[in-house]
Amino acid sequence: MSTSTGVTAATATATAAELAARAADEVIADLAARHRAVVVDSPPGAGKSTLVVRAARALAAAGGPVMVVAQTNEQVDDLTDRLARGDPALPVGRLSAQGYVPSARVARHLAVTVSASVAELADCAVVVATAAKWATLRAGTWSCAWAVVDEAYQMRSDMLLRIAGHFERALFVGDPGQLDPFSTIDIDRWAGLTWDPMQSAVEVLLRHNPETPVRRLPVSWRLSATAVPLVAEAFYPFQGFLAGTAPGERRLEFATRALGSRPRVTGALDEALGLAADSGWVLYELPPRHTVRTDTEAVWACASLAERLVQRGCMGYSEQTPAGAPVGAGRIAIGTAHRDQSKAIRAVLSGLGPALAGVTVDTANRLQGREFDVVIVLHPLSGRHDASAFHLEAGRLCVLTSRHRHACIVVARAGIPELLDAYPSTEPVHLNVPAKFPDGWEANQAVMAHLSEYKVRA
Amino acid sequence: MSHTEARLDQMRGAVPPRPHNARTIAALTSNPGCVRRAILDAAGVDKPKLAAAAGFPAPFGQSRFAITRGNAFEAQVKANGCAELLRLLREQLGLPVPEVSYDDLEEVAASRSLQLRHSRTRQLLTRAAGSGTDAGTLFDHPLLALEVGGRLAYLEPDLIAFRLRGQFHVVEIKSFAAIDGQADSGKVAAAAIQSAVYVLALRQLLADVGGAGLVADEVFLICPENFSNQPMAARLDVRKELTVLRRQLSRLDFIAELVEAFPPGISFDLEADDAGVPRRPAAELADALAMLPARYMPECLASCEVCRFCRNEAQATTAALGRTVREDLGGVEYVDTALGLASGDLEPDLDTEDAAAILQTAARMRAESLGAAG
Amino acid sequence: MSTLTALARAQARAGGEAQPLALVRHLHIAERPLVFIPLALAGEANAPLAAMIGDEADSPRLLVVNQPRNRDERFAFAAELARVVVPYLEGFATQAEDVASGGGETRPRFRYAPQVFMPSRASIGFARLLGRSTRFRRTDGEYAVDAAVPVLGRWLSFLAERAEHPGSCLLVAATEVLSLHWASGQSGLEDLNLAALMAWIEPPGGLTCLQAAAAAEDPLQWPPAGPATDPGFDNEVLAPLIDAYGRADGAAALQRAEAALARALSAQLLPTWGLMWRSIALLRALPAGGHVGKRWDEDRAAFTSYVSYLRDGDGLPQPRRDGAVAAARRLSWLERAQASYAAQRAFDDPLAMAEFRMSGEAFAGRVVAAEPDRLDTSGRRRTLRPRITVETTDPLTVETGTELRAVTRLTQRATIVSVEPGGPGEPIRVVIELAGGMGRSLVAEPGTVPETGEWLCYCSLPLGYQPVTDFPATNETPWTHGGPPVPALPADEDAVEDWS
After folding, report:
1. Which of A198, A205, A347 is facing C480, going by the closest CB pair?
2. What pLDDT score does B374 carry?
3. Which residue in B223, B327, B358 has the most chain A C-beta atoms within 10 A of its own C-beta, making it the best mutation to test that interface?
4. Do B240 and A439 touch (CB under 8 A)?
5. CB B180 within 8 A of CB C321
6. More confident residue, B372 or A173
7. Residues 6+ apart with CB under 8 A from C434
8. pLDDT at position B158, please?
9. Do A187 and C164 lie within an 8 Å CB cutoff?
10. Which of A120, B236, B275, C309 is the most buried (most CB within 10 A)?
11. How many CB atoms lie within 10 A of CB C349?
């Protein structure tokens, strides 16, 4: 790398770090001001959990106890672990359901108490639990000045209603671009009400407390300089965000050359991997066809791409690993819209050998919050004849395309732009319901427009 | 006149094209994948007449009572220089309109040509846009225009453009009720996209003086409150509808060019004899229609006058059974194919292997469950 | 819609007749249901035009509004309707029985409850709006209405709310419930036309289903089931008759005009009337599903509650919109009801279960090995934990540790120990551990453990009691949701509300 690029890289990252630090400091300052609530919008990989931990510690130092609310047990464990690692002397409580067995990363901390009864955690400075668990506490058994709610955009309004009685003020941190909470009930009864229980917790809070400051974490540390333009334009059209790394700071290399033992078979795969290394995005395009959800050709394509990555000894170079680190199975994920698709891909992978056993294959719902080096995505619209609101949902595609540090390979049958154009926009419109952006249809258009520049035909 | 326009005119025959209005333009977004509809709309063919002449009359009609009610409500809202409307905008929406003037753009001496009325509207609104005064002004009966499929469509709506804080807001009056703050979401959606048509047209009109920024994304919907005739006002954000419309209108231009690909003789001329009976036999018109590819789905039955013809044409397809049915049957196009694959009578090829597996499992489970009863 | 229902529709289309989607009936059918078919005037929010109503197929009662835009006539219609509906409903509030209500207590519940059938969801929507427009009216003051009107309003609102509840059948939409049990050979949208849907299920004599469905689209042969009327009828028949009534001069002319309107509207309603009773008969002919009685118990309990609310409570009309807590509570209710309704239908009906077999949440297969005497010695006490191995070709996705129940052994808990996929074309082997339903000793009572060769269907949907969610009291609505609401007292404006 030339000196000038090196200088540029250093300057770029210094600016990003400054911006991010300033934004986080502003949030902490907000907590000391007179606000009843503070909302922090965080794009993917912007240091949300770090902020949650920092805020919890600052609030605990100012006079606890502090209530930390997460949405899944996995998230609770992660936050508990981070809190304890950040300050091993801090008494942390992990409030759990009956029969919860502490995971290793929680159990190893001496200062962490695990209990199903909140009374036993009375001496803890910070207590972490899922929203569902907090909601089971009877009124009066717990109250505190501050709550910190993580993944607040994924929590539903009715859940907030149930836990709000336990705290006086709250910091809500979340990613507005990811999956919205949903219900299997399909009625309009509450549409237009400011307290519509099907909204997200942040939406209902802001509608009733419009003076609440909304801050933004401006930098993604996960998404690279090549990834940010697509994700920001498609899913964060009004705010946008920056990459924390400069162009070139992240790169992928392969230990073996493209000419494998079966060049005709692996040709397209290798072309895709080469493009992924060069530009961070690939659209791996299969011939157009209307297929079932568990499209065998697409399932195999996803699995084969993962296999080829591992076979060729992919190495990732980044600001965290300047000497390079292998992109092994554990750093690769395959994301789908439906569980049956994940299952089919897992079945193929398990037949391809033990080397791929560590590859994560899951739906967008379950990949939320996670991070990998390379992500392969089975596009939700691939092989479909008609789009539907579910498959167009922006949040789903946002999660699938924002998990990666290095590269994202989208597998799709040709025909998606045509499908989007043919989509009849007959969505219902309700009075007094603010229009939601990004619009799934628009977001999908933007993603395909970007990806079309990185097309490899299978 | 472009080549496309000439072809479309020839297709339609020696009658003037059906004028577009906001409703028909908005309807372009309801099945954008249907080339048949796009070309018929672009050519301005009289679709109800064509459907009837081809032997498949359209099932639509409008009740006198609905029309009367709609007119009465609108008249009430606009009476006395829009007194009711102004009160509403002031009270319910909290808009600062202490002084408002009312400006009727329709010429008292009527029978000016459309072009002249249109330029008169442009003149007056442009002047208002540049006037810099902040006083609210209601502009009634403007004549707008929008390019649709290469042809200029004049929109003569009962639209009132209202200027507030330097921006024009479209006002849309509808007679469906909002009960306890809720109105039929399908009707509101239709009102939103029709309003978006006006917003686009108004932006085009004012394009020379900084168009887009002068016309707000927010429209005011006026409709009866609860069970009375009393109007209420609601704000509608139409940004999404604008995006959809812009994209579909630009696609329409592209589709209209597809007409070049069709055989020169294809025609929907509905010229009738003295008794009013179309000269061309139904079979001929049906053949002409069949040359245009369609994308039938049951939703067409509520929105397109040619629907019965297309439904008849599509009767062997899975799509005719419902928008999700084709997907559920593995993407298979025809009912017989799906059933053949399900029973195993039909050998799947490479394309239908996956579908066959799923269909066979489903068929087995259905048979097992039905057998369990007997 | 799923692959199974799509396949059934395709089969119906190809075979020319409706295909069953259910082997049992998933709703209770009352001995004496009330059929209510309203017609509304086009263009208005909720202007009744006419209604046909009655609890006997042979005696329909016709109610007509001669001048649908006239406020007094509308309330007279509401009063007349109330005089049919309210006595019908209250007629069931007589015989009560005591039922257990938890904690060793009992509470009364009426033995029978009403059941109202309307043609479609749109008709129910009309009833909901009619309830809304009448329940706030007052019987005194300047805009007084007949005493029965606000009572009708409260009842209609209660029934319409109940109709949102999955599994409830106090107020039923015929097209919806028929579509649950039969797949026609047309689309779901076309199924909203009751005559067309019935044409596929039970075509009138001499016609094929396709012919009957085509005829059903002709409003002259089959007038729409409402509440919307056919525009052609409005323009060519109704409008002139209403005009004539308006111009009628003298008692005799008035009578003639009234009779003409009644004849025309009756002709619009009678065909649907016939269809409604035929659809009830069709449903009644199916055997009831196992959990239908349980859900009807809940309906009866809701009915009983509302009767006592009207009699002994403050009897206030339902509020216009739900408050924050009420909305959240209701959503939780509805979600639980839906989950439980889906599970109950699956366990009651192999065709419903097949949906879950397709999605992998349930599977059916044969027992190929059994260890009925297996004991679990890992804990402090030894417990009887038999294991069985089931072979299945279903595409199951459930993982180890999942809890299941067998359709034929509901009281026995089953947990998946392992899932071994077979090779291509080979069945999957599932090892399941059983607990409960075998008696108290360490030796299972005969017949309580599945034996080799037995065919079993296991499902992971929860069937049992789901704990009620806790919500704060309304007066403790948190600041995040706008704080405690101002209590809504019936205001004068509600009674005064213009109905024009």
Report:
1. A205
2. 42
3. B327
4. yes
5. yes
6. A173
7. C385, C386, C387, C388, C412, C413, C414, C449, C450
8. 64
9. yes
10. B236
11. 25
Nearest C-alpha neighbor of C356 from the set B369, A22, A370: B369
Instruction: List A residues 95-124 in contact with B (Cβ-Cβ < 8 A).
Output: none
Look over chain A and give the mean of its residue pLDDT values, rounded to a whole number.
92
Cα–Cα distance measured from residue A31 to residue A37, given in angstroms and rounded to the nearest whole number:
8
Spatial distance between the Cα atoms of C32 and C114, rounded to a whole number of angstroms: 8
Query: Given this model, what pLDDT does residue C444 score?
Result: 85
Residue boundaries of the structural domains of chain B = 3-61+250-296, 64-248, 320-373
pLDDT beneath 50: ranges in chain C: 500
Domains of chain C: 3-320 (no CATH), 350-459 (2.40.30)
CB distance C191 to C174 below 8 Å: no
Q: Is A195 on the interface with C (CB under 8 A)?
A: yes
From residue C316, give the alpha-carbon distance in Å to each of B275, B361, C319.
65, 54, 8
Which residues of chain A have a pLDDT value below 50?
Answer: 1-8
Question: Does residue B361 register a pLDDT over 60?
Answer: yes
Cβ proximity of B205 and B253 under 8 Å:
no
Evaluate if residue B58 carries a pLDDT over 70. yes
Least CB–CB distance from B329: residue in C3, C23, C364? C3
The string of pLDDT tens digits covering residues B297-338 is: 999 999 899 999 999 999 999 999 998 999 999 999 999 999
Chains linked to C by 3 or more Cβ pairs within 8 Å: A, B
B228 with C497: Cβ contact below 8 A? yes
Average pLDDT over every residue of B81-87: 82
With an 8 Å Cβ cutoff, are A164 and C471 in contact? no
- Please report, rounded to a whole number, the percentage of residues in chain A having pLDDT higher than 90: 82
Question: Quick one: pLDDT at residue A259?
Answer: 62
The span from the CA of C385 to the CA of C368, in Å, is: 17
d(CA B263, CA C354): 50
At residue B15, the pLDDT reads 84
**pLDDT tens, residue by residue, A279-336:** 999 999 999 999 999 999 999 999 999 999 999 999 999 999 999 999 999 999 999 9
Contacts of C421 in chain A (CB under 8 A): 347
* Beta-ladder partners of A19: none
Return phi, psi of residue B237, to 5°. Answer: -90, 115
DSSP class of B8: H
Give a three-class secondary structure readout of chain A. CCHHHHHHHHHHHHHHHHHHHHHHHHHHHHHHCCCCEEEEECCCCCCHHHHHHHHHHHHHHHHCCEEEEECCHHHHHHHHHHHHHHCCCCCEEEECCCCCCCCHHHHCCCCEEEECCHHHHCCCCEEEEEHHHHHCCCCCCCCEEEEEEECHHHCEHHHHHHHHHHEEEEEEEECCCCCCCCCCCCCCCCCCCCCCCCCEHHHHHHHHCCCCCEEECCEECCCCCCCHHHHHHHHCCCCCCEECCCCCCCEEEECCCCCCCCHHHHHHHHHHHHHHHHHCEEEEEECCCCCCCCCHHHHHHHHHHHHHHHHCCEEEECCCCCCCEECCHHHEEEEECCHHHHHHHHHHHHHCCHHHCCCEEEEHHHHCCCCEEEEEEECCCCCCCCCCHHHHCHHHHHHHCCCEEEEEEEEEECCHHHHHHCCCCCCCCCCCCCCCCCCHHHHHHHHHHHHHHHEEEC
Interface ipTM: 0.92
Distance between C50 CA and the closest CA of chain B, angstroms: 15
- Residue B107 reports pLDDT greater than 80: no
Residue of A nearest to B38 (CA): A422
